[in-house]
Each structure stands twice: as structure tokens, then as C-alpha cells.
Design goal:
The protein is an alpha+beta fold. Helix content is about 35%, strand content about 25%. It is built from three helices and eleven strands. The strands form three sheets. Strands 2, 5, 6, 9, 10 and 11 form a six-stranded mixed β-sheet that branches. It has a three-stranded antiparallel β-sheet with strand order 3-8-7, with no helix packed on it. It has a two-stranded antiparallel sheet with strand order 1-4. About 15% of the residues have low confidence.
Amino acid sequence: MARVSSNSLDRLCIAGLLLALSIVQEACPADGCSVQVSQPGEMSVVEDTSSVTIPCAVTAPGCPGHRSVYWFVFRASSHEQLQLHTHGKYAPQGDSLDISPVHANDSGVYYCGIAFSGSTAPGARSTGKGTVLLVRGRLHVANPQGKALLSTVIVLLFLYNLAIIILLIHKKNRNVVRFFRFPQNNSTWRNNFRAVVQEMYR
């Protein structure tokens, strides 16, 4: 019986591995699947809006099999994968995401993820760059009665200030007239004039 050297055994093992690899590649050929996901960079909505839809546009040439859509959100203090339900708060609209209703704590960065289960290509899974959703507070407008009351108060304050100004002007003018009506010596004249000026600029 011929003796087989260790080098021959190594070559046989390598050849067997290469043959097995070629068989696997023929059974599962690589495809040209390449997923591209695009999202808007930022969206803004008013709090308590009935709903908002975050778009997710997908192009996937040469990708076979079923397409799965995932949505993730990163908030200020937490992050999670959203559970999508047709009639839930987070509902799929094709590849896009519908949020209904919208509250202040829905602000965050939302990522759309796409995966093709029937492809082994590295590009069969991809995520977008994220959409920043900013939920603004709603401005509360006063009721008509409150606005009318505020207008009345402003008018009354204006009239009150106007009356005070008129009285001050009248008082200062009367002091000036009294000063010029009675002749006095120079020292008294200067003192009275200084008093009138101080009164006018008080």
C-alpha cells in the first residue's frame, strides 16, 4: 500500500474546500441587489395635529424576495424600534411612517430601514439618513371676551396716563406764570427759576 505524504493530504483538503465553495456559490449565486433609502432631513408640525407622515423613498434594483420595512426613533433620552400596526399610533403607509395623533414627546430622529430577505448581497439592507421631527407647541389665542377686556384695560390706562400728564403740564405752566407775574430781586428770581426748572424736569 502506497504511503501518502502530509503535503499530499493538505493539497487534497484544500482542493476539497475549494470544490465545496464553488458548489455553494453555484447553488446561491450572488445578486446585484442594492437598496437606497432617502428621507427628508427635517419636518416640523404643530402639537396635537391629527397625524403626520414621514416619507421614505426606496429604490432597490435587482433585489429579489420579500421586502421588510423597519422604523427606528432616537429621542433625547431613549431610542427604540417602533412597533408598526395598521390602526395603531405608528402605522405603515407603504414604506413611509404615519404618526397619529402627534404629541410633544414625538419629537426625535426617525430612521427608515429596508431589508430584502431573499438576497445575500451586502447591499440588501440599508437605512436612510434620518428625519428630524420637531413638534412645536400650539399657541393659545384668547377668547373674544378676554380680548375685549384687555382692550378696555389698555384704553383706560392710556386715558389715566394722559390725564396725569395734562395735570402736570398745567401745574408747571401755572408756576411759570406766577413766577413772571410778581417782580422779585435777582437772587429770588434765580432761586424761583431753579425751582421751576427742577419741577419741570422732575
